[in-house]
Amino acid sequence: MGARRRTAGRSRLLARRRRGSGPAAPDDPFESRLPELTAHIWHAKDGELAETGMGTMARRLPAVIARAAGLAWRASRADTAATISLNLAAGLFTAFGLLATTGVLTALFSAGPTPDRVRDALPSLALVAGSVALRSGLQAAAGWTQARLQPQVQRLVELRLYEATTAADLTALDDSTFLDDLQRAQTRGMNAAPQVVQHAVDVLTGAVGMIAAAGTLGVLHPLLLPLLLLTAVPEGWASVRSARMRYATMLALVGVARRKWILSDLMTERRHAAEVRSFTMRPFLLGEYDRFAAHQRRVELGLARRQTYAKLTGDVLKGVATAGVYVALGLMLWQGWVPLAVAGTAVLAIRSGQTSLVNLVFAVNQCYEEGLYFGDYLAFCDAAEARVPQRALPPPDTDSHPALPADFARIEVRDVTFTYPGSDAPSLRGVSLELRRGEVVALVGENGSGKTTLSRIMGGLYEPDAGEVRWDDVALTDVLQAEVWSRVAVIAQEYTHWPMTARQNITMGRGPEHRPGEPEDPAVLAAARASGAEEVVADLARGYDTLLDRRFQGGAELSGGQWQRLAVARGFYRDAPLLICDEPTASLDARAEHLLFDRIRDHAAGRTVLLITHRLASVRYADRIYVLEHGKVIEEGDHTTLMAAGGLYADLYNLQASAYQGGDPLGGHS
Ligand SMILES: Nc1ncnc2c1ncn2[C@@H]1O[C@H](COP(=O)(O)OP(=O)(O)OP(=O)(O)O)[C@@H](O)[C@H]1O
């Protein structure tokens, strides 16, 4: 008794601990220390599916099939037409074979000596054999064309999505709804497309098989038709019920499955590997994973049990229905409504129709499910295409868009205002500035003041909500995007570590193709020398041909500063009249940083540079400095003027200078 009370007390204590920071209950995977998760894209449609009845499905199915057919038609007209006609022809021969069977049975069941009866049956038997062989050949050919269709459909849907996402306005990719829809379309919807086509063809095959069997029965005797339905309904019911149970179970396991994905990502991805080890996360992660996996196993074992019951019930009902059919057939024979040969053929037709109906019901279910995800994909593509700016498209006639002037005198930012989608406050409010040709102009300001946003507007990545950027008298928003991007080189604050060779990381797919053994492109060498990437490449095993990604064999990994030198080389290589450098030295060592600013000044000869940096020692030589605060220009002038003004720039500059001179940075002026 006392022991039981102690145990109960301990359980309460454990439960309290679990509610706090202790380990969660092994049998309750939802009492976890991981954050609560929303429904995952992979299962986003399960709820909708679980609640949709067969009637609704049947009503909505034609639209899904029409979309699948349209897609297949665009992917390959020949294969689509062949798939449909081969399936129809196979159905025709199924019916023909069944009808010919009556001839065989009639001959066999007629009076007379057996050899004569067999001889009489031979022509019909040849017809049956011929139609079975033809049907098999047609079905095999249909399978082949169907298999050919799959990769063509896949290619079409992938291309459409990537064409839209790479051309969509950059602000679309700042929009969380757009990103959610993209993820769902990419990870689930895109794969659903070939599945929908496959299941739509299965629906067609099942329907054709059903119609063939039903047609045969109708020809034999109209009363036989309801018998087909009677036997097929229980099995169809069991298969749909079992599929529904699977969906309901998947739905119940959404949270668990998603957590398992997250945990498996944490345990296998290279980017987490060092922290998993240094923070000794292994037992925690493995323990969490095991609890979720154990729960999932329990639920799935329960599902297997219930599915077996459903199948058993279906089988019993099917047995009862089949017995009913035989009784009905016996009665019809007894009454002389059908001859014995027709009854024999009817049994075969009913069996064939039964299989087709079960396949049909299953295909309808699958087609509908994949159709929901495919609908997501289509909706996303439409939305993404609507967000492709006119200026991204190739011009219908070249005169409709002006070119940027080759020898501009100045670039002017006039009264620019910009708010990110979904943000309440504007990131830029009436910003105006000017860059004369050949100048180095610096943008300075505290974190979040709007420097990167402004540089993106000047680089033609965002369009301002109000105001404009002009190159002499040409407004940037009138020019084709590709033209703007080719005239502006950007060394971005956040740049991509392209999983490509060192050379490709500099040329970015431009310039002459490099063949093995050929001398290096002088432009690549010059950009690498100016940026300091030359030393990085010299240390690589295969020089410019080294693949910069450890995930591939022979791939190399670079340090943060080494990557930054390559990113700078990329900007220098693109010989554009305007160079935007957004924090180009954040990861560089002191010597590399000093050298880089010198080289940016050299590079500027004849070009215009917009330099964004927090290293104020490097901006003192800029021709003009603009100071941003909360999206507004609050100061402008050269270093001397701004220092004399004693405003924010002077404060920030003195703060940095005093830190180097050993003064008290918090005191400001030492
Ligand atoms: N993609 C985005 N979506 C919504 N808001 C954004 C986005 N990018 C930046 N912002 C907001 O816009 C404001 C300006 O950001 P921006 O990156 O231009 O500042 P910054 O001056 O370059 O800062 P830092 O010195 O830290 O690089 C910030 O308030 C930031 O939160």
Automatic annotation (TrEMBL):
<feature type="transmembrane region" description="Helical">
    <location>
        <begin position="223"/>
        <end position="240"/>
    </location>
</feature>
<feature type="region of interest" description="Disordered">
    <location>
        <begin position="1"/>
        <end position="32"/>
    </location>
</feature>
<feature type="domain" description="ABC transporter">
    <location>
        <begin position="411"/>
        <end position="655"/>
    </location>
</feature>
<feature type="domain" description="ABC transmembrane type-1">
    <location>
        <begin position="81"/>
        <end position="369"/>
    </location>
</feature>
<protein>
    <submittedName>
        <fullName>ATP-binding cassette domain-containing protein</fullName>
    </submittedName>
</protein>
<keyword id="KW-0067">ATP-binding</keyword>
<dbReference type="GO" id="GO:0005524">
    <property type="term" value="F:ATP binding"/>
</dbReference>
<dbReference type="InterPro" id="IPR017871">
    <property type="entry name" value="ABC_transporter-like_CS"/>
</dbReference>
<keyword id="KW-0472">Membrane</keyword>
<dbReference type="GO" id="GO:0034040">
    <property type="term" value="F:ATPase-coupled lipid transmembrane transporter activity"/>
</dbReference>
<dbReference type="InterPro" id="IPR036640">
    <property type="entry name" value="ABC1_TM_sf"/>
</dbReference>
<dbReference type="GO" id="GO:0016887">
    <property type="term" value="F:ATP hydrolysis activity"/>
</dbReference>
<feature type="compositionally biased region" description="Basic residues">
    <location>
        <begin position="1"/>
        <end position="20"/>
    </location>
</feature>
<dbReference type="InterPro" id="IPR003593">
    <property type="entry name" value="AAA+_ATPase"/>
</dbReference>
<dbReference type="InterPro" id="IPR003439">
    <property type="entry name" value="ABC_transporter-like_ATP-bd"/>
</dbReference>
<dbReference type="InterPro" id="IPR027417">
    <property type="entry name" value="P-loop_NTPase"/>
</dbReference>
<dbReference type="GO" id="GO:0005886">
    <property type="term" value="C:plasma membrane"/>
</dbReference>
<dbReference type="GO" id="GO:0140359">
    <property type="term" value="F:ABC-type transporter activity"/>
</dbReference>
<feature type="transmembrane region" description="Helical">
    <location>
        <begin position="316"/>
        <end position="337"/>
    </location>
</feature>
<dbReference type="InterPro" id="IPR039421">
    <property type="entry name" value="Type_1_exporter"/>
</dbReference>
<feature type="transmembrane region" description="Helical">
    <location>
        <begin position="84"/>
        <end position="109"/>
    </location>
</feature>
<keyword id="KW-1133">Transmembrane helix</keyword>
<keyword id="KW-0812">Transmembrane</keyword>
<keyword id="KW-0547">Nucleotide-binding</keyword>
<dbReference type="Pfam" id="PF00005">
    <property type="entry name" value="ABC_tran"/>
</dbReference>
<dbReference type="InterPro" id="IPR011527">
    <property type="entry name" value="ABC1_TM_dom"/>
</dbReference>
